[in-house]
Amino acid sequence: MSAEKPIAGQVALVTGGSRGIGLAIAARLGRMGARVAICARSAESLERAAESLRRDAVETLAMAADVTRPAEVTALVERTRKSLGPVDILVNNAGVGVFGPVHALRESDWDAVLDTNLKAVFLVSKEVAPEMIRRRTGQIINISSLAGKNAFANGSVYCASKWGLLGLTFCMAEDLRTYGIRVSAVCPGTVATEFSPHAGKDPSKMLQPDDVAHAVAALVTQAPQSFISEVLLRPTQKP
Questions:
Q1: Looking at the domain assignment, is residue 5 inside a domain?
Q2: Which of 89, 117, 158, 190 is catalytic?
Q3: Domain count for the chain
């Protein structure tokens, strides 16, 4: 371990790691010395992401997986363990959004958002937790949103998923802290990614994916006797 590589030798698994916030987090953790596994649904976008990480000398495993499906989650974690080692850092970043007035949304919209933004966090965390408990160490970071704290028109399903994610995060933290496992949430405001069109907003005033990665880097380098349970991240200027 060194100042340049403070998490050298650790294994990080980042869901939704093929672009945007997830890729920025994977790249930051890799530069900090971690061996990195990334997953997403698209094998093509994953391979492009993996190539960019490897160009930066990051030891990378890329595996297509739908983290809403328990069997695929099990396979993902097992392959990560066999290829890189047991997971030290899990970043639950995969997320989707469907927006519109509540009376115009469909049950399938609810299922898609809640399964990805909330159920998947439960499934992946549940899969890595037993090994972390056995080793009495580990970090789980859930990428939530300020939408988990603030209501807005057309955000009913997305906000419900992120409010639920914060409740899940804080309860997981209580369940696992006895074993030396830290569970935290990062709640960014609007980030300049492909996630949504951000019509009428100035991208230069938005948060950038690297801003979220910086928050994650701070969490994984926190002194071992404490942990930051929640980070609220806002741009200095409103877009």
A1: no
A2: 158
A3: 1
**Burial class of residue 66, CB neighbours in 10 A (0-12, 13-18, 19+):** middle
The pLDDT of 88-111, averaged and rounded, is: 98
Would 128 be classed as within a structural domain? yes
Is 158 assigned a catalytic role? yes
Dump pLDDT digits (tens) for 39-58. 999 999 999 999 999 999 99
Q: Which two tokens stand for residue 229?
A: 């349970």
Instruction: Supply the DSSP string of the chain, one letter for each residue.
Output: --SS-TTTT-EEEEETTTSHHHHHHHHHHHHTT-EEEEEES-HHHHHHHHHHHHHTT--EEEEE--TTSHHHHHHHHHHHHHHT-S-SEEEE-------S-GGG--HHHHHHHHIIIIIHHHHHHHHHHHHHHHHT-EEEEEE--GGGT---TT-HHHHHHHHHHHHHHHHHHHHHGGGTEEEEEEEE--B-SSSS--TT--GGGSB-HHHHHHHHHHHHTS-TT----EEEE--SS--
Residue 184 covered by a domain = yes
Range of the domain at 129: 11-233
CATH number, residue 117: 3.40.50.720
Arithmetic mean of pLDDT, 212-231: 96
46, 53 Cβ separation under 8 angstroms: no
Q: Is the pLDDT of residue 67 over 60?
A: yes
